[in-house]
Structures
1.
Amino acid sequence: MHFLKSLGLAVTAAAGLSLAAMPAHAEWPDGPITMLIGYKAGGGTDTKGRVLAKQLGQELGVPVKVINKPGGGQAAALNWFKELPADGKVFFFGASTGITLNPHLKKNIGYSKDDYEYCCLVTEFQPAMVAPADAPFDDWAGFIAHSKANPGVKYAALSPFARIIMELIAKKEGLDVNYIPTKGGAGMVQLVLGKQVMAAYSGGIHSRYPGKFKTLAVITSARQAHFPNAPTLEELNYGLNGDAPTVVAFPKGIDPAIVAKLAAAMKVAAASKDMANISKKIMMPVNYADTEAAKKFIDGTTASFGKMIKDSGYVAK
Amino acid sequence: MAKADIVGGVLLMAFGLLLLGWIIPAQTHQDTGAAVPPALLPQICAIGITILAAILTLNALRGKTPAGKPPMMKEWAAMGAVITIILAGAALFKFVHPAVAGAFVSFATMIYMGERRIHLLILLPAGLVLSIYVLFYELLGTAIL
Amino acid sequence: MMEELAAGFGAALTIYNIAFIFMGVAIGYLVGALPGLGKGTATAVAIPITFYIEPLAAIAFLIGISKGSTAGSAVSAILMNTPGEPSSAPTALAGYPLARAGKAQKALKMGLYASVIGDFVSTCVLILSAQTLADYALGIGPIELVAILAFSLTFIAALSGNSMVKGLIAGLFGILCSTVGTEIETSTERFTFGSFDLYEGLPLIPVAIGMLALSEMMIQIGDRRRLEEQTDLLRGSGKPEDAVVTLADWKRSAKSIIRGTGIGIFVGILPGLGASTGSFLSYGMARRAAEDPEAFERDGAIEGVAAAESADNAVVPASFVPLFALGIPGSVIAAILIGAFIIQGVTPGPLMFIEQAELMQGIYASMLAASLILLFIGYFGQNMFARIIKLSPSLVLSTVVFLCCLGSYLQGGGMFGLYIMVLFGVIGFFARKYEFSFVTFLIGFVVGDGFELALRQSIGLLKGTPEAILDHPVALVFWALTVLGVIAILRRKKAKATTEPAPAAAE
């Protein structure tokens, strides 16, 4: 009797121990997972995301569904996402500037970088300052000269950041700029191709129209392969940059094993042929960076954007 | 309809004034430096609504309104019933299960309308939920929840 | 050019491709006819399927959906007074009274013919002149757009129904609702009450479902007796000429169809306007041109149905003009399609014609084939739906309520969309019962957004040089039309007031 009882106890204990030793999500993903995108269907981020989702689905063996929650420059999506349980069922894919930059621009935005756990970086936006192909100047210096000679130069700003960058430049160079608001990249393209503005901020969409745009300067901190002759704003001594790789994130409290699994799957998906094709078409190069690098980037860039905005004297609304 | 118009007109005037005096200033930023302040278009709409509502009320008082049919009791009841059913469905969605919520909405509406044929009361809600499930989860492979 | 098109037909007319076009149009028609579901949902949801099929078939499939749903939405508009899409709201206004008079088949058939004609002609225009039109469309900048939209807004008065004051109130309320969300220029929130769901504004689909479909359901569920009468009438009046489109009907509607197609093409080419704007404008013009505008909504008007349906179907292919030629989406559908295109390896834009010439010709041929297939599917689809409607109302209406919930959940971002639908369902109920035109609300809501942005842009562009507006003849023309329109409205109202004796307060 004693023996059986102890055996029973031992077996139970062993079972209990092994159950406890099993990580909670050893089987992730155990069902369909969802990719959250903070923009409308059809945009650059959304398109990339959908292709990635398809590849991920094949990698992980479960359907990866995409949902769009547009609004407030990803603020709607990020706020909603912040409240979700950290069970690995939903992950966020979007422009990192939503997390690194926007909280500096908007009071009470509702979230901060510490609300999320970062998985990896995937692709890079290629923002630049552009002008119509038939503008009466060929490069950045020419643009500055033209603006000085023609006060009230029209500039299309498709986001608060686009406007701030130009405001800072205008302050430094003593320019008088006329800011024309526009809705998204498509709206900007219309204004430029329709010859309504002399310059614009482009998030990268201009590369879809070869021959119709002049790239005056690039806003990433390094020169862009497609426009090797365009200087960076940093080279031009404005102390500005808009580095914006896309980031994959989970809500805080996620099991690191899940993060690692997704990061590995993302790496494979990002290297797929479909991604390479798309990247070529919409010129958003794939530039995978792993979990460590992602975390470092988010922390570092949030700080540097914060400094940049503060130095500019911009007051968050 | 004159009475309804008077009541409606007064309510709308109140709404317009509420907008101008309270909601618009509270819900729009004032000092933004843009040429057209964000509050301008809403203010124009609110002013327009208030003035038009005043005209509406005056016209009704003077008896100049075209005849119309106010809602019957049955229609009010139906509105209340539909809202209740949908909101109850939302609660079921959150606390029980989405499929139950969907079936409930279909079922409850049929019951409210007087449907008593048991086989339909069961088949239609079940059929709807099942076809949605098959369509999205099996054929399309996209989870919608 | 003809040889390429012929080659395109060759590629398009394979069984494989035709099968997908057929499926797309059929699914689209079904989705359009069902209130609550819309082409936006259908297209977005269908995109993942297209990963596994060839590019031409995939794109033809998606385009088929958008064509089918724009035509199918007339069915529920006419038979149940619940438009399947906002763009069929005018069709409900003019078509439902016809159905109640036993002329449902006539109205449905005219709706289908008008849709197919508008669609086919617009597709031809797209094929023949995409590049030219696109370049022309680029010339329509914010300064022109604000004038065109101001002109569109004057139709609010024209479509007010019985009471212009009420119609204007509804229109202003619509514009007010369009201001909810993040204001573009200053990036500040308006009327979001702290809810980040509202950052992007009130979502159109749940608002439309609530106002157009759910509110009507509330009324119909409440008025069971009238429903039973109606179900009888929907069977048809028994007179054979009420079940077909007669020569007289064609004569009445010919102008509306031609005008509607033209308006649809014009509106479609301009990015930012949609099928709804096209159908409202066309309907408004048809009504203005009629001898007895009041009769349009009272007795129903076949030319009203023709005007609305030809216009909204003409918008769809025309909205691909900026998409194909410039890569700029001209409508919500085009925006969704951009993503689908890119995923299939095609970048919409000027390069498309060079790099993917064969594919383009195949797409064109598929679109033409889709127009013809639409005629076929519409014919049978209508019969099927007309039969379904005759089933017991408790089955039909409860299913519509279910679909409304599903549609607003899918297209409104979850439960939030559902709540918006309920809110606007209540508002719509009051609007319908107290004669505040919900059509004018929709016009204000749909146009208001674009109008404000175009206004801000225009002010920015003209700053410092206001005389530059003289360089924009198109804008000046539309402003003139707007002013003339307002004058005409005021004059008509005055004439009505003097000829109409004040009715005794009947209460």
2.
Amino acid sequence: MSAFSDITSLTLAKARQSLRAKKISARELASAHIDAIAAARSLNAFITETPEHALSAANASDDRIAKGEARPLEGIPLAIKDLFCTEGVRTSAASRTLANFVPTYESTVTRNLWDAGALLLGKTNLDEFAMGSSNETSHFGPVINPWRARGSNDDLVPGGSSGGSAVAVAARLALGATGTDTGGSIRQPASMTGTVGLKPTYGRCSRWGIVAFASSLDQAGPMTRTVEDAAILLKAMAGYDPKDSTSVDAPVPDYEAGLEAGVKGLRVGIPKEYRIDGAPPEIEALWTRGANWLKAQGAEIVEVSLPHTKYALPAYYIVAPAEASSNLARYDGVRYGHRAAKTGNLIDLYEQSRAEGFGREVRRRIMIGTYVLSAGYYDAYYLRAQKVRSLIARDFADAFQRCDVLLTPASPCSAFAIGAKTSDPVSMYLIDVFTITVNLAGLPGISVPAGVCAGGLPLGLQVIGKAFDEATVLRTGRALERAADFSATPQTWWKL
Amino acid sequence: MSVDKDTVQRIAKLARIALDETQAAAMEQELNALLAWVEQLQEVDVSGVAPMASVVNQRLPMRNDVVTDGGYADNLLKNAPQCEGHFFVVPKVVE
């Protein structure tokens, strides 16, 4: 079976090199990706395609390259999760509420990318308001994983919430993509699509202009096919922004520089609480293999304990909905967003517009959040969850006394069938069991493709680092990538 | 703790989301399943633990209290479902 065209299979790093050496033009590169996107509409990875935008930016990039004025990402075509506001380009958050919302401003992260010379191919599909773990809650329909189990034609989920971005990267529809990660929404879909996904430290990338879900947990990050590409993209996305009061004014290192330095002498912690009952044995086997790969490259493996791990998911499902209920109060049908057609008084207008505008999962989370913040329940739920969150952060601080990074699985399962988990919210929430702790503690984490399950579907390993130590996370991720030598690609069954 | 039908409608009112009978019944079940699941947090000893509101260990930045931005009335109204001049239009609220 014919695989991908040579040009869309380039890594971001290689494409950058070829553009600078004038072996390919930015226009050629953009066109190849535009064609690939058009041929892959059955995957439903994009909510809005912006080919004219990409082509005119590519022409400008070619001019700059000709004049020797290329910027760090000059001519690199990217896919952007449809949660980042893009000036003049619809930003829907995959919700009916924002289905016609066209921002008049640009998010800081995307502004940084365009200022670095990258160009926009389109806006990718996601779970509605990023609330979901399988990309099945989108108002625009589910995203289909390009991977299929060996011998099967069943459609699988790509993970979520950044499912469209993960698929755009996995199916060679973009050289890289942006995602956002509140409980695992970058790392978990990366694991399920055989791609690399990095959630930076909270505060590393500005949240300004990103549609808010849970403000104390949300963080933007890169999704790519290699660790090197993630390093390149993060460098361009990150940085202090006075418009986000939680963005941290710390220098952004050159993440590419130390990437190949290896893991000799690095202490890698294995948290024993991440061995969970009921996880498939192949997950545990892959984890052991990962530890052995790092050991073989000179790392020291140490067992550590994160005793409050089992409380992370329930704490998250109080804190995140509480923040969401507050953030989503702004969708009132008055200033922007969906307004119900038939309404009586102003209260009816609010209640009907919100009932029609929000899907079932979003409504459920707003309701839970409203309940746990309501009078009489605040202490029992919200305050207690925030205290548990402190304990989870303390667990990590203690573990990092004994090690430099942690190695864990990225997801307890490979990609599953569409609809398999939608009837039981808790079983869906459990997919984020290995990633959610990292958001609660605000730490950086990366998922790197490390192997395949018995059915031939990709599985990722996660490296967790100390706050603002993305450099070590990337370096360890690179060491895993080198050892895993993950070369499997999905069959191109979707191509028109 | 669990919620009954009346509580569900009260929360829906607070959340400004209209729920019909069927939706409210389903929501009651879903919320109770979630509340039963998060109940395990009660077994954690949190005595003497400070609640975490932010993972960023820094003071909120301060700036001078002066106007630094604005003048975009047209932009602000661009996505309004209904407006007149530089005003958002809502159903009549004062009789």
